[in-house]
Amino acid sequence: MSAGYFDAASAEPLHPAGRSALLGALDTAWADPARLYGAARSARLELDRARARVAAVLGVRADEVAFTTSGTQAVHLGILGSLRSRRRVGRHLVVGAVEHSSVLHAAEAHERDGGEVTVVGVDETGRVDPAAFAAALRPDTALACLQSANHEVGTVQPVAEAAEACRAAGVPLLVDAAQSIGRTPLPDGWSLLTASAHKWGGPPGVGVLVVRKGTRWRSPMPDDEREGRRVPGFENVPAIIGAAAALEAFAADMAEEAPRLSGLVDVIRERVPETVPDVQVVGDPVRRLPHLVTFSCLYVEGEALLTELDRLGFAVSSGSSCTADTLRPSHVLEAMGVITHGNVRVSLPRGAEPSAVERFLAVLPDAVARLRAAAGVTGA
Predict the structure, then answer these.
(1) In the chain, which end has fewer C-beta atoms inside a 10 angstrom radius, N or C?
(2) Residues 285-328: pLDDT tens digits?
(3) Among 292, 280, 300, which Cα is nearest to 317's?
(4) Backbone angles phi, psi at 195, to 5 degrees
(5) pTM of the full predicted structure?
(6) Catalytic site residues?
(7) Distance, CA of 35 to CA of 170 (rounded, Å)
(8) Of residues 339, 355, 350, the one with CA closest to residue 276
(9) Cβ distance 281 to 267 under 8 Å?
(10) Taking the C-alpha atoms of 159, 87, 74 and 5 in order, what is their torsion angle to the nearest 10 degrees?
């Protein structure tokens, strides 16, 4: 991993424990876990062990955990499956305005299919108001969705309060916990949860869908016998084994790493406005993920700044997660009512060095000044 890799919110570098488990499983758990011969039974045993390890970290039952091909697939299956199972209740869906694009795309698909969606706004820190979220629930609400923490600005959402309102209304709550699993404690009270292994240092291509016992859910896909009839297709058992090992190790690391990374983020939050004119640091300064900070620079295009920082040895991201190839401003920043252009998301991986953060803070002011000068902006 490069010392200047600051995009852990997109993908945490593969954890050594996950790498070791993955490589070993390629030799021992390659067979079809649905068959009955020896190699297949061995693969099935390893798959079940991985499921139990993930469940233990999440504090759920092993039979509540299903493995998907990505966090996005987990979100789509979770939302559409819950909506399908509760059509007799109604076709109303509640989502937060700053949810990941996978949640919003599923909501759009629900609307195209004749459903109704209520989008709950956020304050300027990116946080949903629990009272507004509760007020959006109706007798015909089939499902509500609220992320554990925002993927672009790091703001932690009031999941416990939303879950209490959902319990009172008899509405299941789906929590997209992709950015927080392994980094912060999981809130209580949710009915469905989704996550993605490459966010915690597991292999790419493994997602997690948790459906708690007593929660109605029916697959929106054609019938398939895999993963308890929840996820179609052949399981990538070696990658799942690597994901489970990485999650255990990553969560253990974060007991000490999270406070250290949070201290480095505090330095960035303090120093960037001091050294770069016309900049806005966004997101909640206190109720936030430990590793992530986003700031927006006036008079600078975000993609140009990313390219310049990449040239200087730093990998960061900008704009809406998963939509960097579009010209549309971040829907998260738009919903917050903050500067939407020239934004940089810094998300520190496990083991990020203070010296690398200092180098980043040293080169950033000149990089912004050069781009502003090239755009004809002076005095900024």
Answers:
(1) N
(2) 999 999 999 999 999 988 899 999 999 999 999 864 444 445 57
(3) 292
(4) -160, 170
(5) 0.94
(6) 322
(7) 40
(8) 339
(9) no
(10) -50
